[in-house]
Amino acid sequence: MTTTFFLVRHAAHDRVGTVLCGRMPGVHLGARGKAQTERLAERFARANVACILSSPLERAVETAEPIAARLGLPFDTCSALAEIDFGRWSGMSFETLAGDPHWTSWNTSRSTNRPPEGETMLETQARIVGIMEDLRRRYAGQSIILVSHSDVIKAALLYHLGLPIDAYARLDVEPASISTLAVGDWGAKIMRLNEVVA
Fold first, then answer.
1. What's residue 17's pLDDT?
2. Is residue 111 within 8 Å of 164, Cβ to Cβ?
3. pTM for the predicted model, two decimal places
4. Are 84 and 119 within 8 A, CB to CB?
5. Closest Cα to residue 53, out of 75, 83, 20?
6. Does 198 score more than 70 pLDDT?
7. Where are the domains of the chain?
8. Contact 32, 59 (CB under 8 A)
9. Which backbone phi and psi does 103 adopt, to 5 degrees?
10. Span 170-197, mean pLDDT?
11. Ramachandran region of residue 194, left (φ > 0), alpha (ψ -120 to 50) or beta?
12. Which residues on neighbouring strands pair with residue 69, listed in sequence order?
């Protein structure tokens, strides 16, 4: 049996591209992001979905809510879908981080580096793949929406593609995008990558 995962990156907030928000609280969708969630809800309006789970961070929850409302389904938050714990880097501007040699090392080799007081991308990959395996068994033959974050989604996709974690920069996962993944005992197949609903 095949389980289909719709991996949805949260919609845009006003700090995208300027601040490494990580797990900092109080990051809400901006006007652009709210418009994106309406398009996502419309995209899924006729989808046959059994379950919706979201990262507990506000920007992800605010993305999941309109989708769940449109489908008439409840949704739950799941800590396994949360953003990477960037530790002391959380809340720092990318401009400031650019001067940090440890930041350069992290982006050169995610497989061998850890954010200060944070988690590795391999640890992130283990938690997202773990919850997907649990859900795959629970919802065999059905479809699931997971609302998460760019690097978390990349970690899941890289695992199922059989690619190393350091290939993360080869994938684009834009705000409010959908990457569709079919997973079964036979393996996995990427059906769509970084689908952005216009």
1. 82
2. yes
3. 0.96
4. yes
5. 75
6. no
7. 3-196
8. no
9. -65, -40
10. 96
11. left
12. none
Q: Are 39 and 179 in contact (CB under 8 A)?
A: no
Beta strand pairing status for 3-9 and 143-148?
parallel
80-102 residue pLDDT tens: 999 999 999 999 999 999 999 99
Residue 96's Cβ-side half-sphere holds a number of Cα atoms within 13 Å equal to 9
The amino acid present at 198, given as its one-letter code, is A
Rounded Cα–Cα distance for residues 4 and 151 (Å): 20
Phi and psi (nearest 5°) for 51? -155, 140
- Name the nearest CA neighbour of 37 among 147, 182, 142: 147
Six-digit token string for 146: 């997971």
Report residue 70: phi and psi, to 5°: -65, -35
CA–CA separation, 109 and 103 (whole Å): 10
Half-sphere exposure (CA, 13 Å, Cβ side) for 6?
Answer: 26
Classified by CATH at the fold level, domain 3-196 comes out as Rossmann fold (3.40.50)
Distance between alpha carbon 117 and the CA centroid of its chain, in Å? 21
Give residue-wise pLDDT tens across range 122-168: 999 999 999 999 999 999 999 999 999 999 999 999 999 999 999 99
Place of tokens 């769940």: 68
Cα(161)–Cα(119) distance, rounded to whole angstroms? 22
Amino acid at 189: K
- Residue 52 near residue 59 (C-beta atoms within 8 A): no
Please give the Cα distance from 64 to 69 (Å, whole number): 9
Neighbouring C-beta atoms of residue 82, cutoff 10 Å: 22
